[in-house]
Amino acid sequence: MVRQLEADILATPSKGVALVTGAAQGMGKDIALRLASDGYDVAINDLPNKLELLKEVQSQIEATGKKSTILTADISIESKVKEMVESTVSQLGSLEVMVSNAGICTTKSMLEVDAEEWDRFFAINTRGTFLCYKYAAIQMIHQGRGGRIIGASSIASKRGWEMGSAYSGSKFAVRGLTQSAASELGRYGITVNTYAPGFIDTPMLADAANSVASGADRAVADKAWAGMAPLNRIGQTADVAGLVSFLASSESSFITGQSVSVVYSRRSPLRVIFS
Length: 275
Ligand code: NAD
What we know:
It contains 10 helices and 7 strands.
């Protein structure tokens, strides 16, 4: 019985190919696994220092009977993103879904952010997303079958955060980029949307939380952050992966140019902690 089930899974035809950036951990990892269980072969990207984690994700994808390839690259570098998309196609055959998930975050007063740090946020969060959209779109137009381009914005892309100027600024820009790209690419049957998560339990959130609070204060901060969400909990990666699965599916074919909030935020997050 189990053998038959395994054989059925292995025999299921692929829905196409998805490429997920920042897939070694956090949301990117769960999105990659969800798309594999939805039936996609999945190319997974992250920085070279995350290779071991990527190998674990690849094994988990292959255990579902889908193909996977690892493409280490810094998504802020144009030549690397072009190469990453080309390698996805040469190794897995095509590109139907691009998930530009990789990003960085900080919690720091605007008065302490220097120009170099500001530029780093825009290089990774904004330019990196632009490059992923651009090279995915070129490939999808070439294939002539439409496609799905999905980016990571944030609730911080809808309301500027205290202690988050560089992050909020870079994510607001992702929303603008997404609307423009959706307007341009609709004629090719390509939709472009972002997921805009609130607080989701990932290594990024742990780092951000540790930078503003430690020890007993950290527990208070976690409780306060959970309390920002109407459902009174911190989100899980599966909450986001489910949305991405929908945005990648045929059911979402008329939805484009949107940044879909995963949760409504009652107040500016750091005000919750500091007030
Ligand atoms: P994470 O830090 O846990 O994972 C992000 C991954 O991106 C890491 O593995 C990292 O190595 C990779 N990455 C960073 N820079 C890269 C680069 N230049 N090239 C390639 N890979 C790179 O983060 P996460 O919480 O899973 O966040 C995923 C996305 O969701 C990010 O864009 C983040 O800004 C956004 N987001 C997160 C939250 C949250 O609460 N966790 C909320 C809103 C939005």
